[in-house]
Amino acid sequence: MAIQDIYPTALRLLGRPVLVVGGGPVAARRARGLLDAGARVTVVAPQASPALADLAGAGLLSWEPRGYRSSDVDGVWFVQTATGDPAVDARVSANAEAQRIWCVNASDHEASAAWTPAVAVVDDVKIAVNAGGDPRRAMALRDAVATALETGDLPLRRHRPATGSDFDKLNHQGSVALVGGGPGDTGLITVRGRRLLGQADVVVADRLGPRGLLNELAPDVRVIEVGKTPGHHPVPQSEINTILVAEALQGHRVVRLKGGDPYVLGRGGEEAEFCRQNGVEVEVVPGVTSAISVPAAAGIPVTHRGLAKGFSVVTGHEELSEVPARADHTVILLMGVGQLRESAAALGRSGLPQDTPVGIVENGYLPNQRVTIGTLGTIADQAEAAGVANPAVIVIGDVVRVSPFAPPHFKTADYSTTSPNAPRTARNRVLTP
Question: How far, in Å, are 214, 244, 368 from residue 248 at the CA level?
Fold first, then answer.
């Protein structure tokens, strides 16, 4: 049998009687697949593997503990042979052929009237692969296709509305997913987030995040831009909330694509609450928050053994008086460029030394990434002279010493993990920009 002789189709076996001849591991796998399809399964075999015996003991299938009889194929819709005995399998196959019943002969794929493909299920898509009678090749191809669907590399989006029970379950309405897109690089979104983006009918997009993924959407996917810049919010948050609910109630799958993480200074909690209050199903997909990932792009860990055991994340617009004023407690400022001078002064008044290292990372992970490093006392002047602008993350604390972008005289022995408890000295903390 050549692959060209195959006519691909799918059997609907719900409630229909099928026969499995054989009691080993292959028979057990085939029986489970047939049960998953809703078939009424009868197994004929003198002995049954533990897996088959468990299925029979649970009442999920019928097991006839005997050898095969020609009359066993009477009245069934589909037959699977898996005895391991080519002669018995050939006899079963011949009996099924005589009654025009489709039969899979596990012993001889060339003589088999039907082939069982390698199968995987992703969402409500079932993938079935035949590969010229080579099961391992079929499984490898199946796994590759399933992975591509899972990661959003292949389109999983519906083009027809759901029907039947799925439609009833959705109650004629769509859903909202709040997806954290990470700091901007398209490779830093989660697999789940990428998959949901590939299924979306509508994308409500921020200015930050993985904007390059928008270019990969199908032409009929609507993108609603709601991006904000410091001091300029063309679409207020209340209107964004309304858009999400309105689009979902029209039956659309809506993805709210955000930069970073929806729940880290991203107002995702407000959006999720508004959706739930209006009866809209909402899923929150965490993202790689820029508070941690963008410093990492410049080689700055927010904690480091021997340098810092904790960190605080605030915006440049927030009161900083409660933040620990110690160089061994990392302070991360988001959206803080415009208020950098005031923030540095506030931290200084709280007792943070003026020679505390400070790093600013603009456009983290993007081609135009730029790093500026100085001290609490100098960084505002440096940023102004360099024209530093948002989006940027500001890191304040001794962890900045670890960055490969830090000047040589910033580096001390203190951040060595081989001597994490070395005493700190005034000499070690003297820094110059």
Answer: 20, 6, 36
* 3-state SS class at 427: helix
Residue 256 bridge partners (DSSP): 178, 204
Structure tokens at 416: 């060595």
Strand 202-205 to 222-225 pairing = parallel
Q: Which of 108, 143, 228, 355 is catalytic?
A: 228
CB neighbours of 275 closer than 8 A, spacing ≥ 6?
Answer: 176, 241, 244, 245, 248, 281, 282
* SS (HEC) of 93-140: HHHHHHCCCEEEECCCCCCCCCCCCEEEEECCEEEEECCCCCHHHHHH
Do the beta carbons of residue 371 and residue 298 sit within 8 Å? yes
Residue 419 makes CB contacts below 8 A (sequence gap 6+) with 306, 413
Say if CB 183 and CB 288 are below 8 A apart. yes
Residue 394 φ/ψ, nearest 5 degrees? -110, 125
Counting Cα atoms < 13 Å in the Cβ hemisphere of 107 gives 15
Q: CA 280 → CA 61, 194, 258, 267, distances in Å?
A: 40, 21, 19, 17
Q: Please check whether residue 199 is in contact with residue 253, taking contact to mean a CB–CB distance below 8 angstroms.
A: yes
Of 106, 102, 98, the C-alpha closest to 45 is 106
Q: Which amino acid makes up residue 197?
A: L
Q: Is 328 a catalytic residue?
A: no
**Distance, CA of 379 to chain centre:** 38
Asked if 169 is an active-site residue, the reply is: no
Looking at every residue in the chain, the average pLDDT score rounds to 85
Q: What is the pLDDT of residues 260-281, one digit of tens each?
A: 999 988 899 999 999 999 999 9
DSSP letter, residue 260: B
The pairing of strands 357-362 and 392-396 is antiparallel
Taking the mean position of all CA atoms in its chain, how far away is CA 37? 28
d(CA 243, CA 223): 12
Q: How many CB atoms lie within 10 A of CB 147?
A: 14
> In angstroms, rounded to a whole number, what is the distance separating the alpha carbons of residues 157 and 154?
9
Q: Kindly report, residue by residue over 30-67, the tens digit of the pLDDT.
A: 999 999 999 999 999 999 999 999 999 999 999 999 99
As a whole number of angstroms, the distance between CA 155 and CA 49 comes to: 40
Question: Which of the residues 185, 201, 206, 398 is marked catalytic?
Answer: 206
- pTM for this predicted structure: 0.64
